[in-house]
Amino acid sequence: MLRTAALGMFLYGGYSIAIGLIDFIFLEKLEWWANLWMILAGFILSFGAIFTRISFPGGLALAIGGLLGLHAISLHNEIHLHGQLSQNLQLSRLAFAVLLVILGYYGWNPDETIDTKLPDRESEPDVPVSNNN
């Protein structure tokens, strides 16, 4: 589940970056700040996806922030481009984002962040090392 969530987040972030760059450079349908917002939120979501996949603490929260940023700018872009909001499109975006977060939450494995090969600091005796060469 975690791999699916991370892949979905990463692809959604990459898609947003690509669409933002294409519109920023070639199409110019949206304002420059809206495209930069979409690109930045896509980067945040992509990094959040990477951190979510490795079960890094705060990775899922970063991904949620990217998803919220992309949803907020999609509200602006849809009104700007079409003159009205499509309830079905916005609800489908919301359902997709919620699905990704649920998959990431239930697939989270905090044991992956702990390296069991390293000994505990408490188990090592404090023996001074002498430099008598």
Topology:
Blueprint: H1 2-27, H2 32-53, H3 59-82, H4 87-106
Helix pairs in contact: 1-2, 1-4, 2-3, 3-4
What report would you give on this structure?
This protein is an all-alpha fold. It has one domain. Helix content is 69%, strand content 0%. The protein has 4 helices and no strands. Helix 1 (2-27) crosses helix 4. The longest helix is centred in the first third of the chain and has 26 residues, at 2-27. The chain is elongated. The N and C termini lie far apart (56 Å).
Q: Fraction of residues in helices?
A: 55-70%
Distance between the termini: 56 Å
Structural class: mainly alpha
Tally of helical segments: 4
Order of helices and strands: HHHH
In brief:
The protein has 133 residues and is mostly helical. The protein has 4 helices and no strands. The protein has one domain (2-111).
